[in-house]
Protein 1
Amino acid sequence: MENGKEGRQATSVNTPEAEKVDFSELMRRKLAEMPRRSPEELAAIEAKRAEKEKDDIRREIVRKLSILKKDVGARLDPFKRATVDTFEVYDPEQEKTLRRVREYIDDIETNVAAGNGAFLIGPPGTGKDHLAVAIAREAVIRLGASARWLDVATLRSDLRDSIKSSKAEKRTLGPYLKTDVLILSDPIPPGSGGLSDFQADALFRLIDGRWRELRPTLITANFRSEEEAEGVLGSQVVDRLSHGGLRLRCQWASFRRRGDHGGDS
Ligand SMILES: Nc1ncnc2c1ncn2[C@@H]1O[C@H](COP(=O)(O)OP(=O)(O)OP(=O)(O)O)[C@@H](O)[C@H]1O
Ligand SMILES: [Mg+2]
């Protein structure tokens, strides 16, 4: 069309000229020009579209689980190893804990939307990370959430590298602040001598930032009690972690040594 103004006038439905146009006749002609499809063809097109949509969702879930797998390593593979179904029960306490984890998962949409996290404490090898990964995995599969796992030893060295500027620190913490679900593993690794003031500050900013944005954080740690956790992490951190979330004490023999306690290792 040479004159854009005229073009617009010609198609405006508010002009007297437009009122004379028989739109229903135009529509009828347009429809007649369209290729005719049988109900079977239309159903096949719809099925193909739905299949492609499912494929896209599947691919996205695999991508997100692969990111989590890269973080946690093969031993806690969220595709097949660290799931609620592969968690073996060899102590009655585990039964109770597993039930609470399953309840959280049954209501995972509400829990994730509310920013409800989990705080798992207990001795080494009791499957704390296994359960945390199992929860994160379900959030990815059921909600399409993104999930990351961070062991605090890595965080400490990342922060050491970025200590020079707050911009660099933001870059380091950014992905962990933004991910929908974050697992923080062993905030104070045993024998590490604790966190420096700077590292403790950064950890608090991470946990606080996520809590403010209603993003669940799951923490696994080698504490004997919540009191000990409060003493080391500070009550502000433990308070935020406990807000609406799961508190689980994994107080049973290590999976690695379960043979000593009648297991099948
Ligand atoms: N009840 C269980 N059933 C099946 N596998 C388990 C169980 N408990 C632990 N595991 C496996 O044992 C290994 C160690 O578990 P995990 O890393 O979760 O322990 P943790 O409590 O986080 O230990 P740590 O305090 O030493 O970090 C993982 O491969 C995990 O899958
Ligand atoms: Mg662990």
Note: DSSP finds twelve helices and five strands in the chain.
Protein 2
Amino acid sequence: MTLEIMTTESIHETVRDHYAAAALVAAQGDCACSNPETIGSQLYSALERDELPDAAVLASLGCGNPTAVADLHPGERVLDLGSGGGIDVLLSARRVGPTGRAFGLDMTDEMLALAQRNAAEAGATNVEFLKGHIEAIPLPAASVDVVISNCVVNLAADKTAVFREIARVLRPGGRIGITDIVAEDGLSPAQRAERGSFAGCIAGALSMTEFRIGLESVGLANIRLTPTHTVVEGMVSAIIQATKPVGSLPLIDLSAPDPAGTQLGCCGGDGCC
Ligand SMILES: C[S@@+](CC[C@H](N)C(=O)[O-])C[C@H]1O[C@@H](n2cnc3c(N)ncnc32)[C@H](O)[C@@H]1O
């Protein structure tokens, strides 16, 4: 399938089929990862792997270790976008403790079932797995302290919606700690697609600058992209950090219909600033 003819629905279907199969492999006790040097549980410390059920480790399909960069504290609410078998949710749950909460969001039933089993085996009680798309997060505005994600933004059908949703659910002063595959600036979408498939986390990857602009455009600040290791030629895994400024106003979606028929100005009032 070429990038040109992929719709949101076909991307979700292709990606879901791919990760449903991976979840079943991990549930049977085999490693779901095809490239263990650059993707998967080797990117975690032995100590972290020992904390977790085997199936959560075997289902690890991330390109980094977002909990290591998110600097989680007891009592915080964390959301993991594309939580898969639950590895980062379970690690987060330990860091935020009984007064905190770790949410995992995923669209694939088989991954959600595996994550629930892993959470039960780990005895985690402060976790919640939600079914849905990261392009439309089923949580209220300003409801989480930290958004993490491990190798999933590249799989999203609508990256603009993902960035908008991250900014919406973060509380002012909240932060992101994401790991994802990104392309060097200058690598065209066609060149990215030559290097790997969409479901394989390559063809849909943003460039460094595209990722930065996406975060800036929704008002996030202190944006840092730090490459960690090469995944394929011209494409790296990177740590992406940013914060939502304390004084930031809620985002207004100017493309959304106005149910009350009120004409809002560009600052949310009835005039323009
Ligand atoms: C590469 S795996 C990573 C899983 C997990 N983060 C980890 O590190 O093991 C991608 C996961 O994201 C989920 N996913 C991909 N696109 C998604 C979307 N648009 N909305 C929700 N979940 C998505 C898949 O179902 C899959 O479980």
Note: Residues 15, 19, 60-62, 82-85, 87-88, 106-108, 111, 133-135, 150-152, 155-156, 201 surround S-adenosylmethionine (CB under 6 Å).
